[in-house]
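User: Teach me something about this protein's shape.
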Amino acid sequence: MKAVIFAGGVGTRLWPLSRKKSPKQFEKVIGDKSTLQLAALRLLPDFSWKDIYVATGVPYAKIVQDQLPDLPPNHVIAEPVMRDVGPAVGLITAILKKETPYTSMAILWSDHLVKKEELFRRILTRAGKLMEKEPNRIIFVAQKPRFASENLGWIQYGGLVKKIDNVGFHAFVDCHYRPDSDTAKRYLASGHHGWNLGYFVTTPQFLWQLYKKFVPNLVVGLERIADSWQTGRFTEVLEEVYPTLEKINFDNAILEKLTPSDAYVVADNIEWSDVGAWEALKEALAESKDKNVTQGKVLLTDTSDSLVYNYTDQMVATIDINEMLVVNTNDVILVCKKSSVPKIKKLVESMSGTDNEHLT
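Assistant: First, the predicted structure itself:
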């Protein structure tokens, strides 16, 4: 079984830690390891390094190799430009279709936290086992929801279809992206909806057939690139063809057109969290809502429900603050309400073309 970890995003919601030169997935957001390192290490020992691939951008290829020195160098697939997730998933699918078309592959992401790692691996490997018998499937891995999130995608599933070693596979019904508050509450109460993590298991051959069916215009270019794999001309052809591919999201390209009978859903509590934004990181790491989450030299007095991260040698002290985010780096100090995180992206974008662009 193969595992592909996508690590190409910029991640403005974790600014000022996350920058264009070193996005969030390469920074030490949790403990002393980056979320990319955590994403790869949680696959061991059920996966070996030769079974793991990382898809990223050319500017970050060396960072990936430095952080994951045991990863084979040719397993770092570096896109010359960003063309959204549709072409990115299509590229690795085209490559693996040439190498191991009927070996199951797991599509994963580098900026998440999964606390129940053993359960997570068991779900992936049992999904891979099922793919041996039913290779023409997509098996989604969903998190049982903890609250009525409006910021995540949701996946609806039906009754239990089969079970392998206590891993239940349910019928797939539909996907829903970022519902409003009332809808999210209804999903939470239904018992048949989970958070859609963007994780799934399939075979390269089946996913490639979906690309040929739904986005044939992408397939033409991707086939040209894949034909150059391991020929010595791969980088040259990739740089020539990839920038010409249509920008399209994977959901729009494939998932929205997927026939429900072609998919299963595994919904379980793997204690997953999206740590791609400061308030999400706080929710993931805090023992309870009122508890604070800190890193570095900090001194808190009468402070609650706040995240205070200090990446400098200075002391950061807070008094009488609640529901706040304080992030101190060597060149930027961010102070805002937890509820104001969506404005961080706009702030970073406003710095483009100004004297502060070097801080983005």
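Now, about its shape. The radius of gyration is 21 Å. The longest strand covers residues 153-164. If you'd like, I can walk through any region in more detail.
User: That's plenty for now, thanks!
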